[in-house]
Design a protein that fits this description.
mainly alpha
């Protein structure tokens, strides 16, 4: 049961990064400016990120990529081991049980990750862009400062 909760948490984190990225990119700057001019600090933070997308896009992409890798490795290892004995019951598949079990798990988890970690959050991020942008601007700003050395390295390598 703990394994399932960890998997759900990883997909949820992926969803947060995806939703944040889409919301900050698609938020109407005019609406954020109006709110910022009325003293809304969250709107000011969101507007700053929206006007400097390089500040958060790399951060979001790093988060999404790391979580996707962790999700694949974790699920393949944990759930693949649970599925392996079932595959081994089929005699001619025994030599390939590890690979088959891991592959089945990765396909299922990838499907779930695409639906719940990418597509639904993107749709939600588009539908409520300004509200979500205001909510995530602060945490994304802090996170972008934390991963800045890694972002700098990636920027200079490319």
């Amino acid at each position: 049961m703990t394994e399932v909760l960890i998997l759900v948490l990883l997909i949820f984190l992926n969803a947060l990064f995806t939703m944040s990225e889409i919301a900050l990119v698609s938020a109407r700057k005019s609406r954020l400016e109006t709110l910022a001019n009325k003293g809304d600090e969250k709107a000011k933070a969101a507007l700053e990120l929206a006007e400097n997308p390089e500040k958060f896009l790399s951060t979001a992409q790093i988060g999404i990529t790391l979580i996707a890798i962790l999700t694949g490795v974790y699920s393949g290892e944990k759930f693949g081991n649970d599925l392996k004995p079932v595959i081994e019951d089929i005699t001619f598949l025994q030599p390939y049980a590890d690979t088959i079990a891991t592959s089945i798990v990765v396909v299922i988890v990838t499907f779930l990750s695409i639906i719940f970690g990418e597509l639904i959050p993107k749709k939600f991020g588009l539908l409520r862009a300004e509200k979500i942008a205001r909510m995530v601007a602060g945490p994304m700003n802090i996170l972008s400062k934390v991963v800045h050395p890694f972002v700098w390295l990636l920027s200079n390598v490319t």
